[in-house]
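Researcher: I'm preparing a figure for a lab meeting and need a structural model of a single chain. I don't have an experimental structure, so a prediction will have to do for now. The sequence is pasted below. Please return the structure as tokens so I can convert it later.
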Amino acid sequence: MSACQITLYQTPMPLALDDLDGSLLDVFFATGILNPFGPTLSVVGAVGQPRVGREIPVVEIMLNPFTQEVTQIGKMMVGEQWSPLHDLAPLIEREYGGCPTIVLVSKQVPESVRLTLVTQILESYGERVNDVSEAVRKHFGDPWTRVTQEIRGVETQSCEQTGAEAAEELASLILSSKHFKSELQGFFYAWHGSIENTGISEGMKRSAMNREKFQTFFFERIIPSVWVPNIEPDEDAPPPVKKHERFDFNSLEDIHSILKSSEWQSFSEEQLVSLLRAVLFIYGHQGDSAYIKYLSGVYKQLLKIGADEDTRLMIESEMVSLVQRDKVLTVVFLPFLVEDPSLQVASKAVIDFVSMSDYVDGELYAFKELRHFIKQGNLANRGAVLGGLVAMGDRQSIKLAIELRSELNPEEVRIAASVTTPFPQHRMIQFWLQWAKELVTSQVAEDQKNFGSAASALVIAINPASRQQVTEGDRSYPCHKSEPPVIHTRTWTREEYAEEIAEDLYWVESQEGAPRLFSDVLRHWGLMPQAPVDEQFMDERPSENKPLKDLGPKPPVKDGEGFLSRLFGTKRRT
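Model: Understood. Here is the structure written out token by token.
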């Protein structure tokens, strides 16, 4: 009997997702990475009816909310029998990003080899599988806690296991019903959240692949050909989000009476949330500054009783929707900016506040307020606010950030440098790079701390969760009333952008004293450091082991030290 045979092309051919319409998609395997800034599903399979003796295309599909790519990577000669462990080996060896926490395999894979195949897929991720296996085991059935800790930089101590042992353990967890159900729920929830809750522009939201469209593709094109544990009918819903009981007010006078008394200080979290919503709406609708002190008190009380970050983000997102519909003014974002200590809440609020502001006397209203608050020190997290301004990467927001950065202390600058975005911006990177150039030779202790933060920001800018492109653009304010809201002027791949900034990176490295932080920055950008090895800073968690380009300045060759002289020696003069 003939066997199936897969042949890979030396030069893959790009396709579009629409090219798959009307054709059977037979999935070999699929892997999913749950990331709140852009969950990603990678699919490998064949397209077309698999009749014996027929050649059909083999494709890779990469789906996240902001990018959908399809590539024909080879072809498969359909035979009468196949051996998944052998036939899929060349496909497993290809690069599919970070270690997944969702792995789906074809229904045609016999149960006897299913665990082995998933283990092989996970083993291909090398040492990365150890940390992921331990994190999934530690937070089994609770993907959101696991992901939250990863974002906050909480390290998971791996058990003493070989890569093969960790891969097999992770495979057994991934194939369990409890893990798959919760992970799939989290994946859909993250898909929606990465579009609606990360502060991106309305234009990007409109161009994104929304959750409904993704779920349709997932359930209609992928699920029919893969094996999954038993799932209850409602398991495709997002993970349960805390629902708050409504606290009804009969009139505006009721709200005034409650605010002027101390009654609200004994409210439950649910009641405080309802009160905060009501006061935000009144303040945002009327713009009456008399409500500011009440808003401040209610918000502080909500923080005091331990309302979680998700709850505050949910309320802030509701304000975004109200501003977009012209129900309230942008002042509704001020309580989140002024009172909230959370990096995520404050940085998102500043992005929304600026993006949706209009001009007053030739300057954005948000800029006037932010300048006042930062200089007066009236913000719970000035670092997060400055970091949000920088992350926007807009010409105007960067100009304001440069003006205000001297107001922050080194710890606040460190916090600003930790603000991440899935969309690396040219001006954001230049903000930190040019500042590093100014600070590198300073002997002032505060300058050296800020220099370290700038180096850290340049590494964080290209974290694994971010897109593989760097863009330059400017917003049209107010963004929710402009079309297009963002005008993109230039785009680079990461490799192209690394070449763009290589000269500056190498210059900073050359000016540093040991240990040279920019040696590590260069490595993360795929460039070979030029400092002596014993002077380089070595990250405890090094960047991926990929070939590094040497784009540094070459020292001039001295007389008598050319290639022939080094090969045969220098002729002595008599």
